[in-house]
Design goal:
alpha/beta, Four Helix Bundle (Hemerythrin (Met), subunit A), Rossmann fold, 2 domains, 7-stranded mixed beta sheet, 11 helices, 53% helix
Length: 333
């Protein structure tokens, strides 16, 4: 599951200061006399600085240990954020939280030793100023964590302890239809940082109480790798670390809008990139092959050396054979 699902977004510095100051002043104790004034100022400083310190540490603790998360999620993290900058930012918040608590102890110690109300007010204002100074010092780190929050939360929930069936192929070849055909129930559309349509995630029954995940990543595995930017390539690297197989959906009728040659170029890229995984070529749209006999013959000639299965996602023809082949390949996982 996404280890960043429960991370917290830090408030802006101005908001942290405002929250802390309000809580400090709201907690003021009543009473008259020197002792009451001292207790009141100590209480203000303690609550104000404990609040700002706690806000910072709650953000730090909401993050997983970056050295212990699964490689798949680590690669996705690297595609969305600078891991070293993230570690530095979390370290900066932790440092600030500790420093604010240290300043709190120093100010409270000074408050306990003075009998001058004017000095008490000065010390309280000093606490506010030093707290603000610390928060301003880490403002770039706070803003960085605010910026990457949404993207990290959108990382899909994918289990890395069960096998995956990852679909690839050019747009409009029928990947989504096949995902729905081989999945149990209705696949879910999950947010995903690299697709506009979202990740299509389903599950497949392997028998003997075993399940596989079925993953269609529209916009990610449907173009040649030389047309990918650095972030997309990193996301593809992350998919390589998932256990499982690749289904490459190919449309021999070319009604998808792409020639067989274009589709074969992507297939060669995918088979090379995911060379350590099992790969099945799924020849889709069998229900209309009769209208495109030359294209079908051309496709079959191109596929010499590739394992392929003929299906129609529209009618369901060949889907049972495809499911059985997938189960056989995933028995070793």
């Amino acid at each position: 599951m996404n280890p960043f699902e429960k991370i917290l977004r830090p408030p802006e510095v101005e908001r942290i200061v405002d929250i802390s100051a309000r809580r400090g002043m709201r907690s003021s104790r009543g009473g008259v006399g020197l002792s009451s004034a001292r207790r009141r100022e100590i209480d203000r400083v303690r609550r104000m600085m404990d609040t700002s310190s706690a806000i910072l540490m709650s953000v730090v603790r909401s993050y997983p240990n970056l050295d212990s998360i699964d490689r798949f999620y680590l690669d996705l993290l690297d595609s969305l954020a600078d891991r070293n900058k993230l570690k530095h930012s979390l370290g900066a918040l932790s440092w600030a939280s500790t420093t604010i608590r240290k300043i709190k102890r120093e100010i409270i110690s000074s408050l306990r030793q003075t009998s001058d109300p004017v000095e008490m007010e000065r010390l309280r204002n000093m606490a506010i100023a030093r707290m603000n100074s610390i928060l301003r010092r880490i403002e770039p780190e706070i803003n960085y964590l605010r910026d990457i929050y949404s993207e990290l939360r959108k990382i899909p929930d994918i289990r890395t302890d069960i096998p995956c069936v990852i679909l690839s192929g050019m747009p409009n070849t029928g990947k989504s239809s096949i995902t729905q055909r081989i999945s149990t129930g209705k696949p879910e559309v999950a947010p995903y940082p690299f697709t506009t349509k979202g990740l299509l995630l389903g599950h497949m029954d392997l028998g003997n109480f075993r399940m596989a995940q079925v993953i269609d990543t529209p916009g990610l595995l449907d173009r040649p790798l030389n047309r990918r930017n650095k972030l997309e390539l990193q996301a593809i690297t992350a998919l390589k670390n998932l256990p499982g197989i690749i289904l490459f959906v190919l449309d021999p009728t070319e009604t998808c809008g792409y020639s067989v040659r274009e589709q074969m170029n992507v297939l060669r890229d995918i088979s090379k990139t995911f060379s350590e995984k099992g790969l099945i070529v799924v020849l889709n749209k069998k229900d209309i092959w009769g209208d495109f006999p030359d294209k079908v013959r051309e496709t079959l000639a191109f596929l010499s050396g590739y394992e392929y299965i003929e299906v129609s996602a529209l009618t369901g023809d060949g889907i049972d054979n495809l499911i059985e082949r997938i189960r056989n390949l995933l028995r070793s996982f």
